[in-house]
Amino acid sequence: MIHVSGLRKVYGNGVVALDGVDLDVREGEIFGVLGQSGAGKSTLLRCVNLLERPTSGTVTVAGQELTALGRAELRRARQGIGMIHQHFALLSSRTVAANVAFPLEVAGLPRARRAARVRELLELVGLEGKASAYPAQLSGGQKQRVGIARALAAGPKVLLSDEATSALDPGTTQSILALLKRLNAELGLTILLITHEMHVIKGVCDSVAIMRDGRVAEAGTLAELVARPGSLLTREIFPLPEPAPPGTVTLTFAGRADEPVMSTLVRGFDVDVNVLGGSLEDLGGRPVGRLRVRLEGGDHAGALGHLRERGVIVEEAALPAETGPITEEPLPHEAEAIAEETR
């Protein structure tokens, strides 16, 4: 649904915001872009609907290359792309209904059809009784629901979310994420969202790209990345001290976190398992866990082989290389003295 290739954005002051970004978002998925401030994620989002014109590279949405379109064609193409903002971007002088109706007015939709569409959208986002209210009379969560309704007014197939929950409290954030998840399922929306919050990725995303310094450092489905040894996402979700202490083993259980794997090792391979740290998370409705352990005694190699056969990701931290006793070669004049002493 969204294909970004070789995207580069350099501002007039020489700052490189995007440095060769490639991204593929499949139709119907919720794709998260995770990164800290300055990583380039907001610039990427604005380049997807060409609110920012990239310096080079291409952006294709629903099979249409937006970077090749003229102004009028681009305006029509944008009707298929909705956008919700971090700080709501509502018109304070308009009622809730009038805010939602605004893009329909711009599109020239007759008044009766606008009114029907607004009622439908407010019901969809749970604001049936707020049509006559003004933004100043709404809570943060209600304002964001108005923003979502307005973004859906033209019936887009793609929804862009610019840090839509970062200005909200945790409880309200969860309700907005649940709404986005429901809209994704009911309307078949493809959602591309940017965030610096890991709980947003864990809560609603099917796939994720991690951005650093204007580049995509890692991308894929959550399932793929969790199952990838050394994954940045896994390290972000399950923070453990890095680097791992020598001789320890880090285990990632993707979908098997509720099985008694450790007790099987103790009984079947006669090893002692010392758990040094770990945690358990729910990702996409399945339990995923990460443990750092030290295995002692018994059939160490057999135990690790058994874990790998069970689909556990095993990362071993090597012991320091053993060295022999340190000997010092005598200097030439010292060698002569030693030789003289041994005569």
UniProtKB/TrEMBL annotation:
Keyword Disulfide bond: no
Skewed-composition ranges (Basic and acidic residues): 330-343
SUPFAM superfamilies: ACT-like, P-loop containing nucleoside triphosphate hydrolases
Family matches, as InterPro entries: AAA+_ATPase (IPR003593), ABC_transporter-like_ATP-bd (IPR003439), ABC_transporter-like_CS (IPR017871), ACT-like_dom_sf (IPR045865), MetN_ABC (IPR041701), MetN_ABC_transporter-like (IPR050086), NIL_domain (IPR018449), P-loop_NTPase (IPR027417)
Classification via SMART domains: AAA, NIL
Entry's transmembrane regions: none
Keyword set, alphabetical order: Amino-acid transport, ATP-binding, Cell membrane, Membrane, Nucleotide-binding, Translocase, Transport
Coiled-coil blocks: none
GO molecular function terms listed in the Swiss-Prot or TrEMBL record: ATP binding
Domain of life: Bacteria
Residue ranges annotated for the ABC transporter domain, each copy included: 2-238
Sequence segments annotated as region (Disordered): 322-343
Name the UniProt record assigns to this protein: Methionine ABC transporter ATP-binding protein
